[in-house]
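BACKBONE GEOMETRY TOKENS:
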Amino acid sequence: MIIQKCYKIKSTMPSTEGDPGSATDRKVAESKQAPVQIFYADYSFMDETGKWHDPFEYIFTNAVSSIGAALDARERSNSYRKFQVGATSLSISDERQEITSFAAPNSKVAKQATRRCAEIKIIDRAKDSGFNFTAGMFVVGTADHKKIEEVTGKPTPTLHPCVISCLPALDESSVVLSFGADKKLQAESMEAHTARELWEIYDTDELPAERVLYDFSPESFALAHTVYLDLTESVRSSHYKYPVEARKFHEIKTRTQRSEAVVEAIYTAQLER
């Protein structure tokens, strides 16, 4: 049985806007915007027995709570121009065989201040805690194409992790679910990509074809999970052909294949509903 701890984020902390104020005020504001752990699971016993464990499955099973946590985190954003972003991660420790989730908002208290993206806050916190791989990243931002273009250079339907600091910190097999949300505490649209796909989008001047989704209900993610299991059945079957001591390596080796299957499953499930 997986040891699991869940924590609910309460968005009771008001944003601090404009002048960063005194050193004490800045410390209080920074504490309100620090990453918060919302989930933890230990699956090391599976590694010891050689049983298959796929961290990508948490993208489906934890999707709804992760979106909610990102929405709540966005309410803590400290953006002088109200460009609010919230993000939630699913981070893996390959060494300890653990998975955790952090949520954080973006921050930029003044025009001359250093920008801190929500995603990089989470990635840094996870790595400091020994979690080396980001299996999933949920990003909630504006759905305003014009505002998005001002930040990323492309008028995409949802806000993607930036190419300056966030994308370079992700593995190419990380899965990014980005959400447009201009109503308070309500996501309205979604895109799904692997980090590798996002790099390809920003390596060209062309605009990507829009693939926007509008159903991110528990039922939709449950169906996508089923589709994902069908798409990756051969990977799970081949896992047991390896000696127990080589199975962790096999799980890591097949991450790119499985992350692409996550994205495919999400879009396929929408077509089937």
